Automatic annotation (TrEMBL), chain A:
It holds the Pfam family CCG. InterPro entries: Cys_rich_dom. Signal peptide: none annotated. One of its GO terms (molecular function) is oxidoreductase activity. This is (Fe-S)-binding protein. The lineage of its organism: Bacteria, Bacillati, Actinomycetota, Actinomycetes, Micrococcales. Residues 3-85, 140-224 form the Cysteine-rich domain. It comes from the Bacteria. GO terms for cellular component: cytosol.
Automatic annotation (TrEMBL), chain B:
This is Iron-sulfur cluster-binding protein. InterPro entries: 4Fe4S_Fe-S-bd, 4Fe4S_Fe_S_CS, FTHF_cligase-like_sf, Helical_ferredxn, LUD_dom, LutB/LldF, NagB/RpiA_transferase-like. Residues 326-395 form the 4Fe-4S ferredoxin-type domain. GO terms for molecular function: 4 iron, 4 sulfur cluster binding; metal ion binding. Keywords: 4Fe-4S, Electron transport, Iron, Iron-sulfur, Metal-binding, Repeat, Transport. Residues 436-455, 575-607 are annotated as: Disordered. It comes from the Bacteria. Pfam families: Fer4_8 (PF13183), LUD_dom (PF02589).
Length: 277, 607
């Protein structure tokens, strides 16, 4: 199958290794991954901040990028951004009186899958160890981010995948359904409440004794891991895709998690400035 | 987003006044409340307990989602037929001996109540817990007129005696624990002494004997209403303590203040709501006391019944198609109990009578979001969606929050000038009326037009503009991301960033910023995208993978079906699963019985 990757803006710019992990998992199954070059953001930041008119060009760009590209299905490593495609993009287009764009957005949304959804529902993966070679011999817990959980209804797809990873022990997170407090611009418009929410989340993660929390949304993880660091907590976060990508031959080591760059083994071309790690 | 013209030429829309205003912007108010660790512990404990109870009793109903749909549909009907239903209601209440009054806003409602109480020549009244009378600030108003209103609901009494403000719709004293309550009672209840302990039963007994006297001595009672039935003119109050029943039956005169949106078309609609409300509210299958009365009945209950129908901004809410479902609210408080923002910040942080998620939409809608006091409320949410998931009448609170944010931004950009001017003048007039009623010289209020903001772009505007430009083009994103190595170089020696200037400083107040990656995925992919073979080889070595059975592409992804299936509904899915299991089990046991055919079961549900 030809699979179009929607990296999402935050993964593209801050967590390129998560996009790469997504690609590696899909390629392993024999699929071709393409990256529609015009892609930008899903528009959620604008919409949730009340800038619905301001979101219009962002929506239009996404719909154009994913309408003109040639692919069978699209995938994104984010429940929140995928949900936004179906939930917000048509709404933005209609609010601005562009019915054609709204229809286009609906078509793109109907072909776009969250990573665990794609793996389970379309690609038939029910055993990550056997079908993806996933190997990650660590105790972890899992935080289901709100939009994947409640808007998309991902259910137990992500945890079923994790439980089938070779060597992995999944410890249940108390009050897992509670929001981590990110909420986009909420995080800096209401920093105190957001901080109180992430306090509670970090305490719950600590109570599992794992120190490592997996999830499907890098934005929540940027917030949670940044808050943990600020509070001197040992809690770290990791994306589901990274765990699935890790194999016996090429295992993800715990001390690599903190670096957001593409892992060295894959970074065959060194960028001209800044230097690799 | 358009608003509907209600077609009433010359009638200015009445926005709400009274206890609907947040005096301090939410973020600051919340910051102060967050320091109250006792309050947070009390609320955290109480909300977690009630959440669990609610989840249990909701989870046992296989038709819960159908009930929610029914509740939502009935409330939609009420909105669509409101003028006609109100007239029908008025006619039926009048025919059964009640007197109906209409109040445009808080000031009018307060005046009507005061006149009615004065006409009875009394200086004390008893009250059933009511959100509408809190909204209009009735107790404070009566106090100013020399009339003492005694709250008879236990939690409301605690708040009143403690000279505090309610912080929850159902349990106004949720922020107080037993020790604090004991302290308030021993200070304010005559006759309580050392024997008063912090045992719930002892505290309840103290309140009971205190209230008994009031019930027997007072001849005028004031209540709100949970439902008003247009078809019959019947009013309903549901409660747990029996105090409501006393207030509704013992006094000679009963005055009820009811928001116009509390109507139901038919008596049979109660079937739906008496199931939805207690399960959502107290986590009980049935509430202990359901009182219904229709006009007056000779020799039974009050001799005189007055009903005040309150608008106070509700017509204005009804005029907004994107926000009007906020009027469906049955004040169950389920959304408060699951809301993490409410849990941490507490109810007082919302300023208005209506706290929590429903307050964050309803208060700014009733006053108009252009009332600057309330324009921080729509942002008081991380949009996690739990409120929508539990709301028994399916109010899509997150979507309304986003809609109100949009209204706020457009107001600030001067795109809603007419509405904004009208909304602001409501605030100014309400303040003046309040000051006059309290006998003080009103503060010189600026002309509403003056409140029209200078339209310089805010920091947020600039951020969104810049982000919009970059994020709406892959090329521009790629270019912007070229700066990543620079950021990495700058931050790496420090292990990340701890401080940012301006508005985004809110981010670094609570979190570090990590060292950015050395390049974006987009830019990396350009040079490395094609190396698939190499990647697979590195990852798998000589491992052979088991074959996956997939390959069928479904008609639509979850995102494509978001509006049909489980929108904001992990719980909806869980209940659907339960129902499917039940149906399967039923189908298995009574396979041949025609009674279990889908058609009949549907018939049952619609009955
Ligand atoms: S908005 Fe819904 S959940 Fe919240 S109080 Fe009203 S009816 Fe209950």
């Amino acid at each position: 199958m030809r699979i179009a990757l929607f990296a999402t803006c935050i993964v593209d710019a801050m967590y390129p290794k998560v996009a790469l992990a997504t690609v590696r998992v899909l390629e392993r199954l024999g699929h071709e991954v393409v990256f529609p070059a015009g892609q930008g953001c899903c528009s959620q930041m604008h919409v949730n901040s009340g800038y619905i008119e301001g979101a219009l060009p962002v929506v239009r760009n996404h719909v154009e990028a994913f309408t003109s590209a040639d692919y069978d299905v699209a995938v994104a490593p984010s429940g929140s951004c995928v949900a936004s495609l179906g939930h917000q993009q048509p709404m933005v287009a209609r609010a601005c009186g562009d019915e054609d764009l709204a229809r286009g957005a609906e078509e793109v949304a109907a072909r776009t899958y969250e990573l665990s959804e794609l793996l389970v529902d379309v690609l038939g993966v029910d055993n990550a160890a056997e079908q993806l070679g996933s190997h990650f011999p660590h105790r972890i817990t899992y935080h289901p981010s709100c939009h994947g959980l409640r808007l998309l209804g991902l259910g137990d797809r992500p945890t079923r995948l994790l439980e089938s990873v070779d060597g992995l022990e999944l410890v249940e997170l108390p009050d897992a359904q509670e929001c981590c407090g990110f909420g986009g611009t909420f995080s800096f418009k209401n920093p105190d409440v957001s901080g109180a929410m992430v306090d509670a989340k970090i305490k719950n993660i600590e109570s599992t004794g794992t120190g490592l929390c997996a999830g499907g949304d890098s934005s929540c993880q940027l917030h949670m891991s940044g808050a943990a660091r600020r509070r001197g907590s040992q809690v770290r976060t990791i994306h589901l895709a990274e765990i699935l990508a890790s194999t016996r031959a090429n295992p993800l080591e715990l001390d690599e998690i903190a670096d957001l760059s593409i892992p060295r083994v894959h970074a065959t071309v060194t960028p001209s400035a800044g230097g690799a790690r | 987003m358009t608003t509907v013209d209600l077609g009433m030429p010359g009638t200015r829309i009445a926005y709400g006044s009274g206890n609907l205003y947040e005096e301090t912007p939410f973020p600051e108010h919340a910051r102060a409340e967050l320091k109250n660790t006792q309050m947070r512990a009390n609320i955290g404990h109480a909300t977690h307990t009630i959440r669990g109870k609610r989840a249990r009793v909701v989870g046992e109903l296989p038709d819960w989602q159908d009930l929610r749909d029914a509740g939502s549909a009935i409330k939609q009907e009420v909105g669509a037929r409101l003028p006609e239903l109100l007239e029908q209601f008025e006619a039926n209440v009048t025919a059964r001996g009640g007197v109906v009054h209409w109040a445009r806003d808080a000031a009018e409602a307060n005046r009507i109540v005061t006149d009615l109480v004065r006409a009875k020549g009394v200086e004390e009244v008893i009250k059933v817990k009511s959100m509408a009378t809190q909204e209009i600030g009735l107790n404070e108003h009566l106090e100013g007129q020399g009339i003492k209103a005694h709250e008879t609901d236990l939690a409301e009494l605690i708040v009143q005696l403690g000279e505090d403000k309610p912080s929850h719709i159902l349990v106004p004293a949720i922020h107080k624990n037993r020790d604090e309550i004991r302290e308030i009672f021993s200070r304010r209840m005559p006759g309580t002494g050392k024997e008063l302990t912090n045992e719930p039963a002892v505290l309840a007994e103290a309140a009971r004997s205190y209230l008994r006297e009031k019930f027997l001595d007072t001849t005028v009672a004031i209540s709100g209403a949970n439902f008003g039935i247009a078809e019959t003119g019947t009013l309903t109050v549901v409660e747990s303590e029996g105090n409501g029943r006393m207030c509704l039956t013992l006094p000679k005169t009963l005055i009820t203040v009811m928001g116009v949106e509390k109507l139901l078309p038919r008596f049979s609609d109660l079937e739906v709501f008496t199931q939805l409300l207690p399960r959502s509210s107290t986590g009980e299958r049935m509430n202990p006391y359901t009182s219904m009365w229709t006009g007056v009945t000779e020799g039974d209950g009050p001799e005189e019944f007055h009903l005040i129908l309150l608008d106070n901004g509700r017509s204005a809410v009804l005029g907004d198609p994107a926000g009007r479902s906020a009027l469906h609210c049955i004040r169950c408080s389920a959304c408060l109990n699951v809301c993490p923002v409410y849990e941490h910040a507490g109810g007082h942080a919302y300023g208005s009578t209506y706290p929590g998620p429903i307050g964050a939409i309803l208060s700014p809608q009733l006053t108009g979001v252009a009332a600057e006091q309330n324009n921080s409320l729509p942002y008081a949410s991380s949009l996690c969606g739990r409120c929508y998931e539990v709301c028994p009448v399916k109010i899509d609170i997150p979507s309304i929050l986003v809609h109100l944010r949009d209204e706020d931004i457009r107001t600030k950009h001067g795109q809603r000038d007419q509405a904004a001017t009208q909304q602001r003048s409501t605030v100014i007039e309400a303040r003046q009326a309040e000051a006059e009623a309290a006998g003080v010289t009103p503060e010189p209020a600026g002309h509403p037009a003056e409140a029209k903001k200078k339209k310089v772009p805010s920091e947020m505007d600039l951020l969104m503009k810049a982000a919009g430009t970059v994020m709406s083009s892959g090329t521009r994103m790629g270019l912007a991301e070229r700066a990543l190595p620079l950021g990495r170089g700058a931050l790496k020696p420090f292990g990340g960033a701890k401080w940012l200037p301006g508005m985004v400083g809110g981010w670094t107040q609570e979190r570090d910023i990590p060292v950015p990656p050395n390049q974006s995925f987009r830019n990396w992919w350009k040079n490395n995208g094609e190396n698939t073979q190499q990647r697979v080889a590195e990852d798998l070595g000589d491992t052979q993978l088991a074959v996956s059975a997939g390959g069928e592409v479904p008609a639509s992804s979850l995102a494509g079906e978001i509006h049909q299936h489980a929108a904001w509904g992990a719980e909806a899915q869980a209940v659907a699963k339960l129902r499917a299991e039940r149906d399967q089990a039923e189908g298995a046991t009574t396979k041949d019985s025609p009674a279990t055919s889908t058609g009949e079961r549907e018939g049952e549900q619609n009955a």
